[in-house]
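Database export, one record per block. Field names are fixed; values are copied verbatim from the stored entry.
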Amino acid sequence: MAVSIFRRRGDAAHADGTTQRPRRAWPVRRTAAGEAPGRTVVERRPSRWRRSRHNPISAMILAAGWAAAVILGLGMLLTWGDANPGNALVDATLDTGRWLATPFHDAFPRPNPEHGLYLNWSIAAAVYYLMGRVLSWLTRF
C-alpha cells in the first residue's frame, strides 16, 4: 500500500477526470512554475546501488554478518554483566561467541582477560559485520 501511495504522489486530476499521467523516461525535464522558459530542472534517477534490492543470497549473507555481530555483542554484554555461566542460554551464547572469535583470539593480549575479551570480540564483530556488508554488496547485482 505504501508503494502505491508514493507512486501516485505526483498525480493530479486532469480536466477529463482521469488521474493517470503518461509514463516518462528518465531524466525528466520540466520548467518550474513562474520561472523563465529557458531554465530547465532535471530530475535524476537514483544510482543503481540505491534502487536495487537484495537478492536472497545477498540477504542471507547480510543476515549472517549481522547475526555474528549480534552474538558477539550479546556475549560481551553477558560477560560485562557477570551473567551466570551455568545458565544454558548464557553458556550457549558464550560458546558461540568463543567459536566466532577464534580467528581473533589473543590478537591484542591484555593483562586483564575481560578487557582482552572485549577488545578481541569487538574487532571480530566489526570484521564479521563489514565482511557481511561487502560480500552482500558484491552478490547484489
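Remark 1: The CA atoms of residues 29 and 72 lie 51 Å apart.
Remark 2: Helices lie at 2-7, 48-51, 56-80, 88-100, 113-138.
End of record.
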